[in-house]
Predict the 3D structure of the following.
Amino acid sequence: MWELLARSLEASTIFLFAALGELINQRAGVLNVGLEGLMLFGGTTAFITAQATGSYPLGFVAGLAIGGLLGLAHGFFSITLRGDQVVSGMGLWILSFGLTTYLGNPHTGPLGLGRIASFFGLSPFFVLGVALVGITWFLLFRTTQGLAIRSVGENPAAAEGSGISVTAVRYVCVLCGGVLAGLSGAAYTLSYNPVWNYNFLMGWGFVSLALVFFSMWNPWILLAGASLFGIMWQLSLSPELVLPGVLSRYVWRMVPFAITIPILSVISTPWFRRRWGLARPEALGRPYEKS
Amino acid sequence: SSASAAAAKNATLAILHFSVIKGTTWSGAHDRAGQRLHAKHPNVKIVVGNAEFMGLPLKDIADKYPNAYLGSVVASDITTKRNFIRFFPRQYQALYLEGLIAGALTKTGNVGIVSAFPNIQVLRRTAGFYLGVQDAAKALNKRVNVYVKYVGDWYKPTEERDIASTLVSQYKVDVLTQQTDSGSPLDVAQEKKIWFVGKDMDTVGFYGWSNTDTVAVSFDTRWEVLYDRMIQDWMAGKQNPRTFLYLGMKDTMTLADGTVEPTVDIMNNKKIGVDAISPKALPLIPKSIVQLVGQRREQMLKGDWDPFTEHEFVSNGTGLELKGTPGTPIPSKGTVVKKAQQVPADDWLLGKFNFDLDGMTILK
Amino acid sequence: MPKPLHADGPSAEPILAARALTKRFPGVLALDHVDVEVQEREIHAILGQNGAGKTTLMNILFGLVQPDEGALFLRGHQVEFRSPHDALAHGIGMVHQTRRLVSAHTVLENIVLGHPRVRGVLNLRRVAPEVEVLCNKYGFTVDLAARVWQLPEGERQWVEILKALYRGAQALILDEPTSTLTPPEVTTLLAGLQALVRDQGVTILLVTHKLPIVMAASHRVTVLRSGKVVARVRTADATEDMLVRHMIGRDIAVRTGKRSGEPGLPVLQVDRLSAVNDKGQLALQDISFSLREGEILGVAGVTGNGQDELAQVLAGLRDAVSGTVRFDGRDVTGLSPLAHWRVGIGYVPAERVEVASIAAFSLVENTALNYHFDPAFARRGLLDDARLEQLTRNILSGYDVKAPTARTRAQHLSGGNLQKLILGRVLSRKPRLLIAHLPTQGLDVEAAAFVRAALLDAKADGAAIVLISEDLDEILSLADWVAPIYEGRFGAVLPRAEADIETVGAMMAGWSAKEVRVQ
Amino acid sequence: MRLGRYDVTLEPRTTRPAFYSSLTAAGAILLALALASVLFLSAQTPLLEAYRAIFSYAFFNPNGLLATIHRSIYLLLCTYAFLVPLRAGLWNIGLPGQVYAGGVAAFAIPFVFRTQEAQTLSLPPVLLILLMVASAAAAGAVVGGFAGILRARFQVSEILVTMMLNSILFWLVAYMIKEGGPFMSPRGEGESFALPPALHAPLLWGVPFTAVLALGAAVFLDILFAKTPLGYRIRAFGQSPAAARYGGIIPLALSLLVFLLGGGFAGLAGYHYFAALPGVYKISGNYGYYGDLSFYGIISALIARGSSLGAVPIAVLFAGLSLGARFAQGELRLPFGVDYALLGLLMMTFVASHVLYQFRVAWRRVPSLALRHAPTQLPPG
Ligand SMILES: Nc1ncnc2c1ncn2[C@@H]1O[C@H](COP(=O)(O)OP(=O)(O)OP(=O)(O)O)[C@@H](O)[C@H]1O
Ligand SMILES: Nc1ncnc2c1ncn2[C@@H]1O[C@H](COP(=O)(O)OP(=O)(O)OP(=O)(O)O)[C@@H](O)[C@H]1O
Ligand SMILES: [Mg+2]
Ligand SMILES: [Mg+2]
């Protein structure tokens, strides 16, 4: 049972890294719906690099770098050019989906390196994820830089008027978001399932995106949400361990995705917003024009 | 599915595979077949590609192109036409040998299969493997459970990994094999340091996936043997002289470099036969079983023995109910579907084999 | 590197000077070689009509906008502000025309936001006493832990000033600080500003287009018109008339509305109406009044006291939590917005760009916003484009809208012209009840006069009008009934004759009718 | 950015000539094709041969052309499925799920009428075919409408909901066609039963009648958006939901409607692919690939800037390109995924052209510091 739980937590780290990056993005007011694309590209690059060089660190560096680059590309479009953030995000997703399919294809198959060590079966990335959650929370809510980030996401004009460069803060945040998405992808292809195949995420990036909304932009709730989703995902693959023979495996496979929809709906109701507050950054998705 | 078509006098062989992915066990073997045929028949144009079909299964267009010779892998449908042949290799023979090795290797007495979903092809191949496992168990006087856990698709690497992991961690499986196409189960076996038994292709030898420390043995399918028969028929001016090709270990071809190879064989790291057994696994397998593997292989190469003829088929009560009229229900548990020493009909094997053998555990 | 403002002793140089500032926006020359000099310890008013370039000038002084030409000087040293950060570092603070506070954050968080001395780990407990000291110095009480959205508008203004002072601003730019304050709050603010100059040596740049404020509070005035400086005078030497002429450039041609007859039949009865805002708080409480044909009810109040909710409930865009609205004797509470249009209720919302028009649509398509459901404008299931265009042309000429053609996109219209178009469009439906929310906000004197005249015309034609405005003068000049609104309640519904500026002003600040009378 | 004495900035365009939008669309496509040459060169394929293989197969080879037409119909229907909600400002990325739903619903008709067992029809075939078309459209509409209603009622992100529905419906199809599922083929090969020949969609000149639907819809949608009150409402809502609500448009009804309509088109695409294509007539085992392919619909709608008529040539081009690329891959032994790469490149150049379309590069001299002397005091008046 412990192994199953450990595996679930490893799955949740994939969601967690990407969602944490997106959370930072969104706290600064930038919406990146192309998260899945960043993860695909980061994961593929990390995989190819690690396989070519035989070095995990290099793989991670490459994955993080490409994630960061794509994050910056999204930033350029949405911050500097003040374009539609959904268009840009969707663009990144489809671009990555298409190009990684092509680039990664010759590498289809196992990575062929020794596994990254684990602590009693628990992925070191989960530990890293928890640490990052703590760091992010502290950064966002206990430092002036965090106050600046949150202000930029709520009311960029007010932040700019207080001497904060909205552009700089947003760029730093999209960079962080991109790097974390790249990390998520790299953790997927180098540790969670070091076997490359095209479109390997199959919607995990979108689940991560949904998790940010669930979390009400709070890293700790995000951690809980990601863990829950990881467990749900793992159980959906082995339903016989919980409810043997109750439903078809195909129905179980739908469950994690299906549960997302009612949760999203509930947290979107006016009742819920009134009860738990409107945490959604006020300026989310809106380009900022000076003055 | 896969097809070959040759046009006019200057023959062209087109091998189309619909599986999206190159770098899988199944498609990889087809790819290799194209290369080997190209070497053997330099004057025949061989085209291998991922087929894009907006419809048009070969069966339907066969009438439209009466001068072409078409063929298709059997999944279960065995209908044919004058210029349309069905073919499949007798992989169950090699799988039986793998089963012997797997049954001998397990210490926990649990062998796991990561499988796609039940269909005739899968059930039949699994039966071959299972008979091997049980023969080894009997010879060594131990109990071996075979667990099957389905993924739901041929190619879902992430899910295949998790299902393999669950087999290892929850069902204490220490020998793993797969009836799916990705490299994930192999990767799990390597990670968990248990034995893996491969499918469709010698992935250690051809893809360099993993090594013989993990892969105890694999089986290798040479589609080129089947295609070669069809090319030869075509060049001799004959189209579909048979209704289907169901070739096994006794059927061989000679490659361009002079190697004679049977349609299927156990193979690992480019070694064949008993030598294919991983050097690290060999000491762990009782001599009697190694001998048995060698003996059965020799018999099958000669065509003197066949596991499906030798053994009786007793239904496990699980499998796949075939619909349609008349339907084929799953024989109820304990039913003796075929008696020992009785030769099963090829069309029955290819089109009706819809049950698991008694004693297997299908995880739902 | 010039020194910060406060580091220097008194000198003859102007503390802050702008030389030959020019700023172009696509299609507009917002500033045209503007020179401004501000002396130390003065309240310097910048006066000008809408669009004169006041905000643009201030944004340049604060580093938010970079000039195309010209330069800034602090005590004679040239400086370049690439962002507000630079301006703040030089001791210049700004309170913007539109509130620039993060409403989800606490007052204290807003005050320390971006402060150069508060770095790294956010230790608000250490900062709080300092801010409290500052509050005490100016006799200002505010709950530092309160979230900004919970504060009344007047206090938010003070939070912004406090924030600038906490950063050590020696020159303070205030852009239209009085536009959202009640008359008593205005008095308090101006007194406070004068004290700042007198006691703390702060220099203040006060942007406004309200003459009485200039006359009451400033030492010197610079008048801008169409991006040019047209006058620099000492307030003591100026008269209101003179300043108006500088501001407008000529005498105003004001159109007056039709004179109306006696009020007619009752049109609207509102009974104990309550509604909640988007945050779910009760924003409108127990509103009751009735209105007859040819009458105007003026709802006077500072923004954020339930006006939005009132207008939206009356237009059918928001549900009431209790109470009823009867129109022509029929209960219309809870009917859809479309049903409101159909029965003859017209609505001119405050947000002319976001709500009342669609920027990317042509003027004809914008007209269709109020006609797409009208069978008279559909032919065989298709929209009757020719008729819509004809109607649009009529509105353009009838309401003096300056637009190249009826196919121009709405985004190319100036604010005043857009407002006239919207009003004309809504009135072309001949509504029996018109809800006009801030109809003249941001309009220049002429356009505002035009809009007021159009409202009077509609009244004369028998429409009942609910006029929601922050401009007390406007309400007092148009309304038959005056209802001061404060925190979602009407202080009273006074007949025009009983409504004087002090009474209404006091009620807008939350005094009850009884308290006002005692005073 | 400063370059010498000039300040270079991107400025929003104030005027956008009409031809500019077709120009940028063409530019985006050409640029993507040009970028694809990097892929060919890296695979050491002669460029001209690669492009020749792609285009000659897609548009000049009789088999290829037919396939291109078939695929164009599919892509066009997917394009509309994305385009209609887009005009209302909503993103329907649930095309795969709605396509699957359409396929399943189409096959539900012969299943309910038990034709797959007896191969006999209890109703006239025309009626059954009509029922299949209607049921496919309705199922797509229901799946789409579900996202629409959540969006309208609770402001739930339609992007997330439609994406989740894609996964859900993917497994629903698997459930239906595999392992004894209701629609499993009689031999259990992981695909659905085949339609009896009587239920094959009628062909007009070798092309299924869905072509008429696809082209008719282009005209219909164009008129809808240009001329009808409903189209006006959708556009108004897309530009400004607040203004639309002010104008009496009911957001709930509209969000629902565009998703019903969009989903309906995707459902028809599902019908077209699974039940109308000569030779298919079943839910094939590789249905997931057609889900991926439907994303081309997103790009053609975006590049066509929401114009249904403009989308026709673009969808045909994309159909040809994706098929031709697959063909070239086999013919020239290119690595797998050329068609996917092209999809990505097209998306990238679209986003770039989107920028070009809205901005222009402005050069401005850095402000000179030469100052006029400022008069300190103007005489009043
Ligand atoms: N960012 C901008 N882009 C384009 N034009 C602008 C921009 N900001 C201001 N303008 C234009 O510049 C001119 C001056 O505007 P400004 O806001 O400075 O006027 P103002 O005097 O503050 O008016 P108001 O009394 O309405 O606040 C106006 O015509 C305005 O439309
Ligand atoms: N951001 C902008 N982008 C493009 N054009 C603009 C912008 N702002 C203003 N304009 C154009 O500048 C012109 C002046 O607009 P502005 O709003 O300043 O008028 P105004 O002088 O304030 O008049 P009014 O009193 O009627 O509001 C208009 O033609 C308007 O279309
Ligand atoms: Mg201003
Ligand atoms: Mg204006």
